[in-house]
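Example 205, ligand S-adenosylmethionine.
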Amino acid sequence: MRQFVVIGHDVPTDPDAISLSDIPGAGRLDLLCRCVAGGVFLSHGIREDVRVHLVVADEFTVTFDADSLRHLHPDERNVAARIRDALDARDDAIGHMPADVSPGVELRRMGLEATLNRLLDGGAGTATDPTLVQLHEDGDPLVEAAPPTDPVFVLSDHNDFAPAERDLLADRVDRRVRVGPKRLHADHTISVVHNWLDTDGYESY
Ligand SMILES: C[S@@+](CC[C@H](N)C(=O)[O-])C[C@H]1O[C@@H](n2cnc3c(N)ncnc32)[C@H](O)[C@@H]1O
């Protein structure tokens, strides 16, 4: 299982504040939509064993599970509509029980720390031996280590990681890596990571 946790700092938690006519205006939701699409889709297909978790304003987490997604299309408008639906269901997320939004999409009332706890300390029902990897422009080169079996990658959006996130991740991450010498958009970083894993660390094509 590959998992990507993307921190959306500026996305509104109120679905009424999200206009499908101005997706970037909703805290750069366009970028998060591309992270979802880049995480779960192939050209004319969908990946297996991938989940993308969008942390919204450190309050909610919307999870896309590639194995059970139905009727999702890769365009930003379609993905944004699903995220807005998820936030619209936020009153159904009680405690840490998820709100079921549509097949393969769930919303939990969890910020970054609770989401990482869920993914790393059990309860997510997936990763058997998860490795938490922070994707950061100043990390160690990706190629210096073998790809982990059950990686959980954490990325920030168009902002840098906030100080509290930096502290939390410093305590929790197993590795902090960079995918190359240039600062990339988060969705492009996900594509590079997929390619690294798809090729077993650039060993098999
Ligand atoms: C556009 S960057 C964030 C903005 C940048 N930190 C800033 O404040 O100028 C989006 C995210 O993609 C990931 N990222 C971008 N370039 C990367 C690289 N070369 N290696 C690893 N991760 C990268 C990081 O998680 C980063 O926080």
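Summary: The chain has one domain: 2-198.
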